[in-house]
Amino acid sequence: MINCLIVDDEMPAREEIKYLLEDIEDVNIVGEASHGLEAIEMNDILNPDLVILDIQMPKINGLKVAEEIYKREKKPLIIFVTAYDDFAIKAFEVNAIDYLLKPVSKVRLEKALDKIRSISKTITPQYERHIERLISDIKVKEEGEVNKICLYKNGALIPLDSKDIIYCTVEERDTIVISKKGRFIYQDTLSKLEKKLVHCGFFRSHRSFIINLDYIESIEPWFNSTYQVKMQNVEEKIPVSRSQVKEFKKIMDIK
What contacts 132, CB < 8 A, 6 or more positions away? Predict the structure, then answer.
């Protein structure tokens, strides 16, 4: 049985979801919330397996709610409900998080639930990364994309457009950025840099590499069903690790 919490600031929208779930035998509605703070409180009290969560709510929106409940030890699966445009829909699809586009249809809801059933109730680190990336992508849409990153070269800070970055890597203890304008040092971890770049078309292909998908020249099969990626303007081939192959194939539409 999937214990479900419904969150939407509009009562008719909550009623519609409840109506659509009425005949689905393995879903049990344990509660509903009308705003973000109530949603966080209800999640802590009820410990649902699934939260159907509207994004566009006043004061604390659904993205903030997701951030807060993912700080808890027990994390529910999430289906977002959105009225956003195609940019947001692309972000949902790339990050493999399911969503419902308003107005919600029963067929689409059932497909979303099928995906939920296929996922373990134990949240994996990969699923958490998907949630984080999704939140980052939609926040960029809300707040406006930041395209410049300041990097060190020869003792000075150089503003660099993200579109000029080819790939990023780690050498000894330094985070290195390889770009059309040369080689730079980023004064933080590769993971911190990933959070800044993920919304700009970058992909963490390996624990030691972030690549700009726009600079991929060719993709070569490698051992153990993995790949090596040839990037434009550089000789080094970038590995795609086994843990990232599935997501990479989905993003690049590799069958």
Answer: 70, 195
